[in-house]
Design goal:
66 residues
């Protein structure tokens, strides 16, 4: 989880759904994050990135420091 001391979170969409405790499919969450990436950065200063590997996709959320 992202905190003041730990401004970065990395993991899979499945892990993020479990962390958020939301009733949403991981692929739908990823699709929504892709669409809202600009809003996350502009409104909350959170950078969103997805890295695709042979083993699956991994999401990175990082709070940008000013």
């Amino acid at each position: 989880m992202m905190t003041e001391d730990n401004p970065v979170w990395n993991g899979s969409a499945t892990e993020l759904v479990a962390l958020l405790q939301e009733d949403i499919q991981p692929n739908i969450l990823t699709r929504r994050l892709n669409v809202k990436a600009g809003d996350l950065l502009n409104e909350y200063s959170i950078e969103y990135a997805v890295k695709r590997t042979r083993n699956g996709s991994f999401i990175s959320l990082a709070r940008k420091t000013v």
